[in-house]
Amino acid sequence: MTEERLRALLTAALVGALVVTATVAVPPADARPAHEIPVSTVPDADLSRTNASGWSTVPAADVALSSAPSGVPNAGDTSIDRVHVQAARSGDRFHVRLQWEDPTRNVTAGSPRSFMDAVAVQFPVNTSSRPPIAMGGRDNRVNVWYWSADGATQELLAGGAGTTTAFPSPAVDANATYANGTWTVVYTRDVAAPSENRTALDAGDRLDVAVAVWNGGNDERAGRKAVSEWHYFPTGPGPEGPPYQTLLWTVAGVAIVAVVGVTAFGVLRARGGGGES
Question: Which residues pair with 147 in a beta bridge?
Fold first, then answer.
């Protein structure tokens, strides 16, 4: 084998290694840990509007829903099976955007058979432990942000089923739109807890969150609702989530190139001292 041919083969190997690096440096879409909802930072952006342009850069998680365990009539008959969730921080404000398909727009409740569409997100008050998902527990309470299609927004505190109380002055804002059979709701609140018994949204490396959706057109109300399991937002600098995974994949790719490069150098050096074959 001539030295020119050997050099060509080694160059091809290096190019191949670079291609591998470019491929593995971007982790696959499903590499995110189960139940993680990514949080983006979008500086100097007003994300309180449902159609704000900044939301186009924020990744969404597809969160599965199922009927909540409940003793109310027809509790298992719910119609919304998933909700798309996005989360972003802009300055000192935290935003949660939810989208779900609903073929009917139900915005009033009056007659015995008329109920409103609604959505809620739930957080532990004490973020260091995970409460019971059904409205928390007596010693481990939850905050609930609740929006209903008549435009009302409530901020609630609960320590178990049947213990819900409303904060007199909600610290949470909500905006909503309905278009093409899809509801979009954006919640916005300060990152820091405004007062006692409200969740600090940056208190640790992760923030547990759960979602509930009501389809008023399907007679859903109170305990008859579609709910998620506990998910979480990675809110701190800890080694979890897509940025950490990207770093690991990139390091692996660089290692591949380094190994191929050292091998190529060694072979060329040996060939230079040993003549042609």
Answer: 119, 153
3-state secondary structure of 157: strand
Higher-scoring residue by pLDDT: 42, 239: 42
Same domain, 86 and 169: yes
47 and 173 in a single domain? The answer is yes
- Whether 222 and 160 map to the same domain: the answer is yes
Mean pLDDT calculated for residue range 152-162: 94
What are the φ/ψ torsions at residue 12 (nearest 5 degrees)?
Answer: -60, -40
Query: Do residues 11 and 90 both lie within one domain?
Result: no
Task: Mark whether 11 and 136 lie in a shared domain.
Answer: no
Q: Residue 40: which residues within 8 A CB-CB, separation 6 or more? A: 57, 58, 59, 86, 87, 88, 89
SS3 154: strand
The answer on 11 and 40 residing in a single domain is no
Please state the domain count of the chain.
Answer: 2
Strand bridging mode 118-124 / 206-214:
antiparallel
| pTM of the shown model | 0.75
Give the pLDDT score at 275: 46
Written as six digits, the tokens of 134 are 């059904």
Can you give the residue range of the structural domain that contains 57?
A: 34-238
* Res. 271: pLDDT tops 50: yes
Report which of 91, 28, 32 is spatially closest to residue 231, judged by C-alpha positions: 32
Is residue 117 domain-shared with residue 135, that is, in the same domain?
A: yes
143 DSSP β-pair partners? 123, 157
Cα distances from 190 to residues 112, 122, 130, 142, 201, in angstroms, run 38, 16, 22, 17, 8
